[in-house]
Amino acid sequence: MVRELYYDEVFDAQKHFRALLDSMARPGKINVLEPVPLDPPPGLNAASALAGFALMDADSTFEVIGMMHGEAAYLASNTNARRVETAKAHFIFARGSESPDFLESADCGTLLYPDTAATVVLQLDAASRSPLPGGLRLTLEGPGIDGRGVLYVRGLNADLLLALQARNAEFPLGIDTILTFANESGAPALAALPRTTRVSWENC
Amino acid sequence: MVENAKFQSSYSYGFIDETTKKEIRRKMLKAICIPGYQVPYSSPEMPISRGWGTGGLHLTLSLMGRNDVFKIIDQGSDASVNACNLRQFVQMMTECAVTYDTAQATIIQSRHRVPEEVLTDQQILVLQVPQPEVLRGVERYEFRTRQMHAEADYARMWVSLYESYVRFGALMRGAGYPIKVNSRYIATPSPIPRWDTPNLSMANCLYLFGAGREKRIHAIPPHTRVEPLEFEDVRFKVEEFRGILCSASGQDKAFMDEIFDDADRRKHVINDSNFLDKVKTGPRPPQRLFTNPE
Questions:
Q1: Span A24-34, mean pLDDT?
Q2: Does residue B272 sit in helix, strand or coil?
Q3: N or C end: fewer C-beta atoms under 10 angstroms in chain A?
Q4: Which helix (H) or strand (E) holds B190?
Q5: Are A9 and B18 a contacting pair at CB < 8 A?
């Protein structure tokens, strides 16, 4: 278990939250997080760790999917959040290459309380405003987007998008997604796809 | 050694403790994901009474960092007692810069007005909300209004608007005109005049609404369709100040305050104090104006 020493839970959390807020309010917008020297386990990228640190505490629960190298213990010891089964998790950390089975059991809220739904943190190889060969071209529409937005991603299984589309079909129920990756210069960065965003995709 | 701000002052940075701030931040994100839906939140104790802007303060203090520039207005005015006190409090607690200039601010907290000047995508407007439940006037119980929102059952809201029309010949709602957000939830825009309501739709900035006493947060993301409730033949209209000029600047096309001077003469002044200062001294800042249907 690694306890991070250089993370400032007051000011780093505030800056990273503002980046998250901006990305969530403007789906597909890429925000770079101010880097903090971190030493996360191999399965977890820095942006996912920072998003977790900014949002999770002892009141929240999480699950990690397909990560075997102490990622859960790392998140738990740095945030005091509890690891629980997927269906009860507020935050679910997974790789973009994962198969979509876990989304089936993720919580998408109730009609009375749609805000209790899970937030999924998906780790990508890369995302950009310009085309990424071998990746997907996402076309985004919905609140927060002026007209139509485009985001290029690499390392995202299209089946996950299909599963998210199915879970988000019945607004206000749905799952909100944070996409995490490292930008061209290696800095942690993120974008978001809240449940209101209509996503269509094609290979590029 | 890592600089640790926690023990350098007798208060937490931003007054609210980190755990509660995180909770408010998580709820803010969910409010953005479900535009117009009221997310319940903790509403921690503040050094002012609930109902005096605590909801706005919770949001502001959870958002604020040391690089932010803060502006607060109360009913359009930067200089009212409430605005001055809260500005001083936020500045003491967060070491942020403060301004009167709408264009300079990154976070604007407001009570009862949206600034006249167009806000940009770098700005967040935090509105204080006394009563977040727009259906409370037609249904007294929370569990029923919650169910009505869940089922998008807004019949009683429409009936109340219709009744207002048949009784008075007009949609008799002044401040806090009900809006439909993203074609789903009916929400309150907080008690802003109808004049400001069209500016919530397809805006560049993010709108956050905090109701401290009622413990609810809701949000309108940028570029989101917001429609004031109206009938096909009875349309939503903003206040008209026909033939009225501001007595301080000689300008029109802004929300006006009606005031009476010592000699009981009636006059009008532009309500937004920073906007008034700007039109008095320089070019008119960009505005979004709504044209009433015929």
A1: 97
A2: coil
A3: N
A4: none
A5: yes
Q: Which residue has the tokens 């971190």?
A: A38
Given A14, A25, A117, which is nearest B65 (Cβ)?
A14
Cβ of residue B121 closer than 8 Å to a chain A Cβ: yes
pLDDT for the residue B26: 98
Query: What is the residue whose two structure tokens read 């305050």?
Result: B257
Query: Under a CB-based contact definition with an 8 Å cutoff, are residues B194 and B228 in contact?
Result: yes
User: Is this prediction's pTM over 0.90?
Assistant: yes
ipTM: 0.97
CATH number of A11-203: 3.40.50.11310
What residues contact residue B9 under an 8 Å CB cut-off, 6+ apart?
A: none
pLDDT tens track for A160-183: 999 999 999 999 999 999 999 999
Contact of B222 with chain A, judged by CB distance below 8 Å, is answered with yes
Neighbours of A41 (CB within 10 A): 18
Task: Catalogue all structural domains in chain B, each as residue range(s) with its CATH number.
Answer: 8-135+167-228 (3.40.50.11310), 240-282 (no CATH)
Verify whether the Cβ–Cβ distance B19 to A58 is below 8 Å: yes
Given pLDDT bands bounded at 50, 70 and 90, which one contains residue B11? confident
Name the residue with tokens 């809240």. Answer: A194
* A117 within 8 A of A179, measured Cβ to Cβ: no
At B29, list the tokens: 């994100």
Q: What is the pLDDT of residue B173?
A: 85
Q: What angle do CA B193, B54, B145 make, to 5 degrees?
A: 65
In this structure, is the dihedral angle defined by the CA atoms of residues B9, B14, B16 and B19, taken in order, positive or negative? negative
Cβ–Cβ gap B29/A119 under 8 Å:
yes
**Within an 8 Å CB–CB cutoff, is residue A169 touching chain B?**
no
- Three-state DSSP state, B99: coil
Per the CB < 8 Å rule, is B18 touching A10? Answer: yes
- Could you count the other beta carbons within 10 Å of the beta carbon of residue B254? 22
